Amino acid sequence: xxxxxxxxxxxxxxxxxxxxxxxxxxxxxxxxxxxxxxxxxxxxxxxxxxxxxxxxxxxxxxxxxxxxxxxxxxxxxxxxxxxxxxxxxxxxxxxxxxxxxxxxxxxxxxxxxxxxxxxxxxxxxxxxxxxxxxxxxxxxxxxxxxxxxxxxxxxxxxxxxxxxxxxxxxxxxxxxxxxxxxxxxxxxxxxxxxxxxxxxxxxxxxxxxxxxxxxxxxxxxxxxxxxxxxxxxxxxxxxxxxxxxxxxxxxxxxxxxxxxxxxxxxxxxxxxxxxxxxxxxxxxxxxxxxxxxxxxxxxxxxxxxxxxxxxxxxxxxxxxxxxxxxxxxxxxxxxxxxxxxxxxxxxxxxxxxxxxxxxxxxxxxxxxxxxxxxxxxxxxxxxxxxxxxxxxxxxxxxxxxxxxxxxxxxxxxxxxxx
Amino acid sequence: xxxxxxxxxxxxxxxxxxxxxxxxxxxxxxxxxxxxxxxxxxxxxxxxxxxxxxxxxxxxxxxxxxxxxxxxxxxxxxxxxxxxxxxxxxxxxxxxxxxxxxxxxxxxxxxxxxxxxxxxxxxxxxxxxxxxxxxxxxxxxxxxxxxxxxxxxxxxxxxxxxxxxxxxxxxxxxxxxxxxxxxxxxxxxxxxxxxxxxxxxxxxxxxxxxxxxxxxxxxxxxxxxxxxxxxxxxxxxxxxxxxxxxxxxxxxxxxxxxxxxxxxxxxxxxxxxxxxxxxxxxxxxxxxxxxxxxxxxxxxxxxxxxxxxxxxxxxxxxxxxxxxxxxxxxxxxxxxxxxxxxxxxxxxxxxxxxxxxxxxxxxxxxxxxxxxxxxxxxxxxxxxxxxxxxxxxxxxxxxxxxxxxxxxxxxxxxxxxx
Lengths: 418, 418
Description:
By secondary structure, chain A is an alpha+beta fold. Chain A has helices spanning 67-79, 100-115, 137-148, 155-161, 214-227, 262-284, 303-315, 317-324, 331-338, 373-380, 407-414, and strands at 13-15, 25-30, 44-59, 82-89, 122-126, 170-178, 181-190, 203-208, 243-248, 292-300, 350-355, 358-364, 367-368, 384-390, 396-403.
């Protein structure tokens, strides 16, 4: 059961449709055999808007950047922040290849020719093994079928095509109103391993029919990514390929958002709902994971302090193992708080473990308190665990998401290439 | 087979004796039942010098510091850097306990009374589960037997007493000459999990009969710890208890080292030999480890760049899993180089995998090169793997040590408290 529990927000409804939830977006995904695969799981997909979009993206902060990152950055610069569509594949990262950029450009060109636009108006993202030569033939052979198969409900095929070790596809979409107009934001993501918060993270495509300026779209993405994907931790490895792109085609016909204000805030909230839910999905489906872990830090002096502590707790291999073993080894939480790059007062720290199974306080004033091991076991048996850390040093709060560390993480990654 | 291969150095001979290798040091270890244990493995030990020592130490940089860290720091300050002995226990970290400092002070006092010195002249280190109340009765009951059993060959009992999840004891000692006098440096360490390079690391006691000023002893320890224990990575968790102390009693009767020069350099080299070998032992016996990994970075612009890259590679969970699976997934090495906080030129990077099974170049000019999977498999089958990264950007070099990530790491840590 890798499904997450979604929080309900007034004024926003969850809808189906993923990257096709917003008006005017078509998608498709198919199997091209980039790497032979008996299951014939789709490995290539295309997301296309019926008209040109405002487009922004954030990318991995790894200094070793895959070719698609180089190419997408270049295209956004060339167009000044517009795009018509995006092509994505799994099964090959096209990173650390001498001819990588040439191949990524070629893929954009293939898509652009079909759509009848300039290659610079196509963004690209790729994921898979690093340092394997990217085969271009499967693309050339299948681009026509991929294009012909585009449809307004092709979102699921696309979401499946970008999966690597993911066990479930990740799609979220919401509907809301701006100026009495119905608006949508929807997205898809892929994650699983090589995920660390200091970055954009993973492959993600978000589409919206809202009208919004490129500048405000980038601002919204930057602010939301900071409290969603960048607060996600699976294994501390920052991928070479991470890309999160947002395409906005304006079909909703709201008054274009070109500055801060109520409409911008509502847009940001909708984007947060989509991206935070995808973040939780990515956490829950981390490689080998059996549990979603959420660390909520309250009472921080600053947001930076609260966030650093939340991330440090979520990243602790030892805590991740203890959560897998359903062992309330809270000392490891204190230990991880202690090495976070943050200010706090140990004597103020309280820690509570929570889930659908109940709530158990394990630490107060920086020291252990007596608790029922039975009650703790009940809390930790659940598949979504909240680790509540109260610093009682101020009013700032932050959340980070992750998962447990299991035998299967080791199994999956000890023989990933074959 | 957790034994490491030791490098031979001209002018230095490896000898037995651990913390008792240096003249005038006695040790003992025994089982006191701090935590019930059917194997009756020793859990408490004492190391005592026949005369007062110059004493220095480095401690964890975790802001959550265990009581023994607080107490040892206090004692070193009170005495201005001298000590008569050190008491250590496993099975309880005495961290995050409201009465922790009181208990650690009491342990020092118990030892001091037996030896007939001031409690401030005793250092203390403790390791085990965090946040468990420290039982003091086993100490009170056994201190006399511990003291009476001190002997000049009690090093092994002491080394066993500090083991936690370690599968082998860690002792190294060397003999060398200064001013025609025979000198010794020996030490013991315990490690296994909760080990990250940004700190002193683990519990370590080093003893020497060299005559050296407190100031130069601290300088030597600081410089050597930087390139040994601080270059060790097991799981990224920085312990609350890490302590590395050096006691020098001057029994060798060399001219006291009180400044830089030939004698100081030789002392530092001896200290490096002891501490680098213990570091490798700690790496090879990391929790669940089947392989020692060593990352040698050459051609860095600066030492800091080379070190940051070596540490980043050694710390990658994904690479650690690949090494466990003997899978030459070199893309993960490039990925880890890319997110290291360091300057380098991707197009210059070359990576070679080496071991007793041979040598295989997997990456050149920042991109993959064709290599024989069979030859790579042979290299990775060995139990000590060298990952050679040449940055070809300068002349700086650095080494970091770690181990593979295995099912057993997860197993050990998913149920550590019981």
